[in-house]
């Protein structure tokens, strides 16, 4: 029996049987340039890339990093940009900085921005009023342009753990002595002993 012959109910059965195959070919295996078809969530992928030992939902990374990893409002290669929870991102999101293009533009590697896909070199643009990376727009590959949604973020975590000296400088050494850049680089603005964001 062919697909076009037979009763309506017989043709309907063929459609029901073949529909998953057709959908798997067009939607389930969608491949966009710069993405890998790999089912993974953003937090485990960012943990794999950075080596940071932070767990739980993505938005929790900011608080969990306090005292363990440097936190900043300035991007650095290898750092994780932590997105706040929102109605579009109920668990938040984390993306790992790959390259810094300018003071307001970076490229990130991330998972699950496009459902169940790993994306490389997606542009993220700081659109915050004070250039502090608290509000961003993210590249949306399906349209080939920056997305229109504005996403609130906490800032950047990492890319490395704080050293014991950074956690407790001791009575004879202060992080304000001008040597903090030698410890953590000029881009990191927060240490465990400094103000909290």
Short note summarizing the structure:
With 197 residues, the protein is an alpha+beta fold. 22% of the residues lie in helices and 29% in strands.
Structure characterization notes:
The chain has five helices and nine strands, in the order H-E-H-H-E-E-E-E-E-E-E-E-H-H. The protein is globular and about 65 Å long. The chain folds into two domains: 1-30, no CATH class; 35-184, endopeptidase domain like (from Nostoc punctiforme) (endopeptidase fold (from Nostoc punctiforme), Alpha-Beta Complex), CATH 3.90.1720. The protein has a six-stranded antiparallel beta barrel. With 197 residues, the chain is an alpha+beta fold. It has helices at 8-28, 42-50, 61-65, 164-167, 180-184, and strands at 35-37, 69-72, 80-83, 93-102, 105-111, 117-126, 135-140, 145-146, 151-161.
Summary keywords:
22% helix; endopeptidase fold (from Nostoc punctiforme); globular; 197 residues
* CA radius of gyration: 22 Å
Report the total helices: 5
Instruction: Report the major sheet.
Output: 6 strands, antiparallel, barrel
What distance separates the N and C termini? Answer: 69 Å
Based on Cα principal axes, name the global outline: globular
- CATH class category name of the largest domain: Alpha Beta
**Share of β-strand residues:** 25-35%
Indicate the structural class.
alpha+beta
Determine the mean pLDDT.
75
Question: Helicity range of the residues?
Answer: 10-25%
What is the H/E order? HEHHEEEEEEEEHH
CATH architecture of the largest domain: Alpha-Beta Complex
Q: Which regions are unreliable across 5 or more consecutive residues at pLDDT < 50?
A: 11-32, 167-197
């Amino acid at each position: 029996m062919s697909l076009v012959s037979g009763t309506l109910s017989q043709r309907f059965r063929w459609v029901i049987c073949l529909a998953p195959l057709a959908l798997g070919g067009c939607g389930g295996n969608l491949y966009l340039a710069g993405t890998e078809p790999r089912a993974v969530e953003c937090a485990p992928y960012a943990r794999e890339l950075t080596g940071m030992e932070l767990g739980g939902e993505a938005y929790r990374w900011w608080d969990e990093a306090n005292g363990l990893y440097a936190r900043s409002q300035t991007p650095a290669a290898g750092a994780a940009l932590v997105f706040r929870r929102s109605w579009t991102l109920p668990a938040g999101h984390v993306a790992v900085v790959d390259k810094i293009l300018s003071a307001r533009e970076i490229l990130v590697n991330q998972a699950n921005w496009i459902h169940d896909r790993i994306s490389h070199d997606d542009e993220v643009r700081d659109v915050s009023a004070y250039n502090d990376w608290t509000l961003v727009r993210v590249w949306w590959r399906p349209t080939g342009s920056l997305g229109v949604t504005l996403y609130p973020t906490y800032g950047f975590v990492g890319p490395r753990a704080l050293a014991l000296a950074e956690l407790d400088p001791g009575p004879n050494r202060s992080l304000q002595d001008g040597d903090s850049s030698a410890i953590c680089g000029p881009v990191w603005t927060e240490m465990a002993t400094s103000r909290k964001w």
